[in-house]
Amino acid sequence: MSEASTTQSGSAAVKSTPEELKHSAPAETPRPYDALHTAHGDTMIEETVVQKLAGMATREIPGVYAMGSAGRRAFSALAERIPGSQTNVSGGVSVEKGERQTAIDVSIVVEYGVSVVEVSQSIRRNVIQSVEHSTGLEVIEVNINVTDVHLPEEEHSDLPQEQKLELQ
Asked: What is the tens place of the pLDDT at every residue in 17-41?
């Protein structure tokens, strides 16, 4: 027989070419259900929720001194001085999120003397556990960018000049 398939419709034969078969409407299969997509409705989670959860989970790890780049940390320090402002827990975290999965990038400053490998493993483990447990999203990757090492003698160098004078 040729590449075209033949189907019987009563007494007349109807031929369909492979091209026609490719463009025919496939039977729509129902989406599989999971924790966020049920028969009773869907739950949508914003990227900011994942950012905050990942930021909090990262800050819980010993050896993480700060999060984000130097510019981001400086901006956050100024913003926190404003009365009534909230601490930005999502600074240093970026997220790509789909319906069921997410990928997370974290920028950190580590304490001098800690193992970057161990801190990174702990961050990954804690972020994945926290985000998957809280949201039901599958975390497919957690990328960690170590932007700096905090040295003990830098303890007071981050403070504004007037606070340095008060400490003396």
From this structure: 556 555 555 556 666 777 788 889 9
Query: In this structure, how many other beta carbons lie within 10 angstroms of the beta carbon of residue 9?
Result: 7
Q: In this structure, what token pair is assigned to residue 163?
A: 């606070």
In angstroms, the Cα distances linking 145 to 67, 117, 141 are 10, 12, 13
Q: CATH fold of 41-167, please?
A: Alpha-Beta Plaits (3.30.70)
What is the C-alpha to C-alpha distance for residues 105 and 126, in angstroms, rounded to an integer? 14
pTM of the model: 0.67
Break the chain into its structural domains and give their ranges: 41-167
